[in-house]
Amino acid sequence: MNKRPTIQTVAERAGVSRGTVDRVLNNRSYVRADVRERVLDAIRETGYLSPREAHRQTADRPQHYSPVKLGVLLPNWAGPFREEVTRGIESARTKLSGRHAEIRVCTCETDIPGEAITLLDELLEWGAQGIALCALNDIAIEAKVGELADSGIPCITFNSDLPNSRRLCFVGQDYAKSGRIAAELLTKCIAPDAHVLALAGNLEYHGHRTRLDGFCSHMREKGFSSSQIDIGETYNDYRVTYNKVAAALGSATPPDAIYMANRSVTACIDAVRAAGYTGRVRVIAHDMSPGRAEMLREGTLDLTITQDLFRQGSLPLTLLCDLLQLGAQPDKDQLSTSISITSLAVAYCCKPSVSFMSASVFWSLVLSALSVKV
Questions:
Q1: Distance from C-alpha of 102 to C-alpha of 106, rounded to nearest angstrom
Q2: Counting Cβ atoms within 10 Å, is residue 205 exposed (0-12), middle (13-18) or buried (19+)?
Q3: Angle at 173 between CA 170 and CA 179, to 5 degrees
Q4: Please, are residues 219 and 244 in contact by the beta-carbon 8 Å criterion?
Q5: Structure pTM?
Q6: Is the dihedral of CA 74, 113, 197, 371 positive or negative?
Q7: 116, 135 in Cβ contact below 8 A?
Q8: pLDDT at 80
């Protein structure tokens, strides 16, 4: 009767799975509003505290915290990344304000490594005691992270890692597996002799490169030769993406499928539509936005694989605050956010041409994709 409530206690009270409770606790997307409210009610009614919150509760009084300054370095990316990561940062700002944490965000305007280094210096001059960054996988930036570590400034990478640097840890998706899942799903939808156009954003970002490598590696394992996969780099630019897709569709061997490992999905769909290939070429992408949700509903985009960008914006700041104020070291291993299949289900459930695939076939496709090994 007096046992401390657990996630299972909350799940049973709310009538949901433990996974759903976990998504609510970590502010993850794709939980219906009514379900989220039911879970929150169950948390309040049972008095449940997560292990980390229980630890903080003993010290969660303003006078126990020394003021701390945290910096964030963002790349020059717009769209879902900017929106969701910024939302996560603002959530952390609100949550950590009671712990006297001040947060400053610097955003790059270019992909020039020197600009990122200059902004890191600006954060250092401002007095940043810890920095969360998403930056180019460049040797100069890695060296800068090492210099910061020598100065006692811990750095946590998010979304795109700097694996050879002295960063404290990485918060993001398992991009190799994400790319392999995309390949597994795509091979279920195209013929063995199909041609694929794979477009990445900027291969100087570790996340982009790793995702594309995972995709190409698994495509080869499934019997697709390198000659069947045309790889391009678009720097997440609308015009560059549109022109590359248009050129590929107008070639002697137009692609049967397009893998969008970059952020300019709208440009791809516009080029496909202009070329008259809507419904004739499969398109698979990453991440979710209102625009992509509409593409899924109208059937111009077949699949999208999501990641928890909100958490990538908030968690690094919380970890830095815990380290600097509580002495709590983050896990040295990759703190990988989940790979969601919710949008995959939305893709087929909302797609007008869903009649060609039964629900049982779709879910067997998803399960086989999620069983892919890295």
A1: 14
A2: buried
A3: 130
A4: no
A5: 0.74
A6: negative
A7: yes
A8: 83
Cα separation, 183 vs 250, whole angstroms: 24
| C-beta separation of 318 from 96 below 8 A | yes
Q: What's the pLDDT band for 358 if we cut at 50, 70, 90?
A: very low
* Alpha-carbon distances, residue 354 vs 107, 174, 255, 350 (angstroms): 41, 29, 22, 8
Q: Ranked by mean pLDDT, which of 24-28, 79-83, 198-202 comes out on top?
A: 198-202
Give 37-71 as a DSSP string. HHHHHHHHHHT---HHHHHHHTT-SGGG---EEEE
Cα–Cα nearest to 285, from 271, 270, 295? 295
Token couple for 13: 């009270």
Q: Tell whether the torsion through CA atoms of 113, 118, 124 and 128 is positive or negative.
A: negative
Which H or E run contains 305?
Answer: strand 303-305
Amino acid at 24: V
User: Which has more confidence, 34 or 99?
Assistant: 99
User: For residue 292, which of 274, 276, 268 has the smallest C-alpha distance?
Assistant: 268
**What residue type is assigned to position 21 of the chain?**
V
